[in-house]
Specification:
The protein is of the alpha/beta class and 338 residues long. It has eight helices and 16 strands. The chain folds into two domains: 59-96 and 287-324, no CATH class; 102-285, Rossmann fold.
Length: 338
Amino acid sequence: MTRDIKGKVIFALALIICSISVVTFEAESGTVGAATLASPTPPVSVDDDAPIRIATELVNLNVRVIDRNNRPVNNLQQKDFRVFENNIEQSIEFFSRSEVPTNYSLVIDNSGSLRMLLDKVIEASKIIVGTNRPEDETSVIRFVSSDKIEVKQEFTSDRALLEDALDGLYIEGGQTAIIDAVYLAAESVSEYERADKERKRRAIILVTDGEDRDSFYKETQLSELLREIDVQIYVIGFISELSAEGGFITRSPQAKETGGRAYFPNGLSELNGIAKDISLELRTQYSIGYQPSASPPGAFRTIRVMVSDGPNREKRIAVTRSGIKASGPTDQPPTLKQ
């Protein structure tokens, strides 16, 4: 090999060695030119036995506790309660004995069959409104037929506005649509202030003679809705004039299923006492929340609350909603008139 060729080979090898040295130095320092070397990602540790947790909202229950004589029991603690969903005991995540704000609608039948009762019904309604706390809000809905269901007063804490709305009720002819009125009122109460994070109790107080004649919705549809939402139904039903088989109110278990109550006065003289009872029941309940078990969408989950016995094995009875179900759409509903 000539001296000239040897020199070129030696020079080329020197260049290669220098290049390798530079790359090695840059790799060790973490850079190659302007690019950054990515640190290797450590493997993710997966525990196959760890439970998979899915974020879900608490199921909130309003629970009324009574004794055998239907007297309220108001001095219980969280340890006295057990909650079961589909017969599986649930862990109670929230418990309160304190009063919580209540949003409720007075839903009052204004059909011709209530002609002789309306004045007394208005008086009893004012008694209920008169017990409102500052944080409570009430709406007033009058109804006759499906096309005559209207909000006389939107939700408000102003008692004067509510009393004015009650004084403005009047009898009107039409085919009574009780189911439609309850359906729309339940939707309205459920949706009002839904985004508000403050815990609320929601209810409907229905006053009617119990005979549904021409509703768009069926009883089964109303029952499905009430399973999806958290609204208690209280009923004042004048049923003495109904046929032997009874009307909608006496047939349907909506009040019981939602944890509410039905009253059937024998006369107008009982109305004011009933109004006071409803006001007391709305405000002497326990609020209980639990994380629901995983269930298929739309599945109905039964709920049962058990309460420990009192002194001398005194029986205590918990009254609350019978279950909960995921919501679903309904086509072509009637609407509330504002």
